[in-house]
TrEMBL record:
Record's keyword annotation contains Transmembrane: no
Subunit (UniProt): Interacts transiently with the RNA polymerase catalytic core formed by RpoA, RpoB, RpoC and RpoZ (2 alpha, 1 beta, 1 beta' and 1 omega subunit) to form the RNA polymerase holoenzyme that can initiate transcription.
GO biological process entries: DNA-templated transcription initiation; response to stress
Gene3D superfamilies named in the record: 1.10.1740.10, 3.10.450.50, Winged helix-like DNA-binding domain superfamily/Winged helix DNA-binding domain (1.10.10.10)
Designated name of the protein: RNA polymerase sigma factor
UniProtKB keywords: DNA-binding, Nucleotidyltransferase, Sigma factor, Transcription, Transcription regulation, Transferase
Family: Belongs to the sigma-70 factor family. ECF subfamily.
UniProt xrefs under Pfam families: Sigma70_r2, Sigma70_r4_2
Coiled-coil portions: none
Organism: Amycolatopsis dendrobii
Domain RNA polymerase sigma factor 70 region 4 type: 138-187
InterPro entries documented for this protein: NTF2-like_dom_sf, RNA_pol_sigma-70-like, RNA_pol_sigma-70_dom, RNA_pol_sigma-G_actinobac, RNA_pol_sigma70_ECF_CS, RNA_pol_sigma70_r2, RNA_pol_sigma70_r4_t2, RNA_pol_sigma_r2
SUPFAM superfamilies found in the cross-reference section: NTF2-like (SSF54427), Sigma2 domain of RNA polymerase sigma factors (SSF88946), Sigma3 and sigma4 domains of RNA polymerase sigma factors (SSF88659)
Domain RNA polymerase sigma-70 region: 31-95
Amino acid sequence: MTDAGPPDADEAAFAEAVRAGDPAQFALVTERHRRELQVHCYRMLANYEDAQDLTQETFLRAWRKRESFKGHAAPRTWLYRIATNACLDFLDKRNDRTPVPSELPAAELPYLQPYPDRMLPEDPQESAVARETIELAFIVAVQHLPPRQRAVLVLRDVLGWPAAKAADALELTVASVTSALQRARVTMREQLPDRRLDWRSPATHELSQVERDVVKSYIDAHERNDLDRLTSLLRDDLRFAMLPDPGTVITTAKDSVDGWVSGGLFQPGCDDWRCIATTVNRMPAAALYLRTPGDPAYRLLNLAVLHIAGGKIAELTGFEVAGKPWLGLPAAL
């Protein structure tokens, strides 16, 4: 399968690095693809640290297989093919990464991790669709698919590859790819009933003013220990999860806050908060810092990732994020 269009400067530099057999030169020309390949691996695996590892594995495999690059496909396509198959090999070996049963929700993915926006690709074309294909709901929905259906969906519907190109990358027939895509789309519609399912047309990735205002109010309620204000920000059919603990709770706003209080939050010794507004997965989020008695500093505790609908928090996914420097959050304030 040959990519359409004449070779560009990137392809020429890549071909020269392959011919030269110089690892430093090869690393230089492949490095420019790191961010988009890492997002690709994350969509396949739902785990930032695994995506980092598999991106590095992609570059190692590319170096070992460099002589197989004949210029019939663009370097970017060739690298995506290697990355996809590296992820499939990883999934084949991990018994704990089997597809999530259709009836189980997001919090049944204890390995789910947030993706720092600062590490997303800078390419405007990728950014145009990044929000709807990087949000937690999408990432979780993809994990309900068997690995090869997952790969087909991402290559065809997210990257926009034609069926023949995806079939070549996965060593499948076009008919198999078409069938897998149809089944994958059915599952995605079941998992994302209220979300847009056409990811090929542009979509904004900026937060709305409403989202910014809700995050600001959420932070203010924490720092003031204003439980009434916090309750008013939550929808009465809130979906709450605290990873890696299993189980999504669908609960009322009052029951949610009462449950947090009964668990010790907002009680003496656990009521001195400072928060930072941030974004992960192109979603609004708040990093929560707690100062305990006798400690002069506020320590990073959790990250609350918010899905906001109709001016209220419809989904709140909490992550334990202490010791995860790749998020770019200070460990203490």
